[in-house]
Amino acid sequence: MAERRNVVALTGAGISVESGIPAFRGTQGLWEKYDPMEYATLHAFVRSPRKVWEMLSEMVSVCGDAAPNAAHKGMAALEKRGVVRAVITQNVDGLHQAAGSRRVIEYHGNMETLVCISCWKRYPTRERWRPGTVPLCDCTEILKPDVVLFGEPIPWLAQEQAEEEARTCGVLLVIGTSAQVSPACDIPRIAKESGAAVIEINPEPTSLTASVTDLHLQGTASEVLGCLVGLLRNPANGHP
Ligand code: NAD
Ligand code: ZN
Question: In this predicted structure, what is the pLDDT of residue 233?
Fold first, then answer.
């Protein structure tokens, strides 16, 4: 990372776990109540938006209460120092931007905006949503958060930018993602095939670990990034 510098990160729900936002996989409150495969699909939203809003309301509240943790701040510090070039995030919580990261590619959209799937009007979530209510468009349709639900395509600009970053980076950091959601899980393979070193930061091995990953740094995102930020700061390691 110190030598190559053009580092790109792909982050997933795991980087926000230490901010109090549960990941999909593992045993955590929110997703025990709401199976993402049942609630987080476009099909479910179209069929019964009020039911899906039970889950979405908790997600909006949890994201609204969350603050960036040491891992988000570490990523912002590495960008400021010219080591990290961009963050491609699957997260919808806005915590990378809140920590100060500037080049953030939101692969799955974000919870800050609501969109009408009938007339395509958009609204800031805080303007239209109140706890215990379902947000409505001026056209009376129930609004959807501007996030990519299962069954929806990736926004084309985010897709293009993410693939370009993956093709041209020297190192790809893969942080806190189980790499089971497609097509985000293709990004590490694209980087690897284009010559990048793939470094995974995760307390657990994933489907990438044995096949794509060059180096697995086993630990939580804040622990490992804390070490990396320290090492990359220390002139004794040959880095200015
Ligand atoms: P995932 O839930 O499938 O996997 C989370 C991964 O994070 C696991 O591999 C787990 O071992 C790891 N992990 C757990 N705690 C960690 C920690 N402290 N530090 C580092 N890693 C840790 O997550 P995913 O692969 O991102 O896929 C879930 C999908 O759901 C994504 O598309 C994402 O958009 C969405 N999602 C987003 C949020 C959010 O915005 N914060 C939260 C839940 C789900
Ligand atoms: Zn509308």
Answer: 81
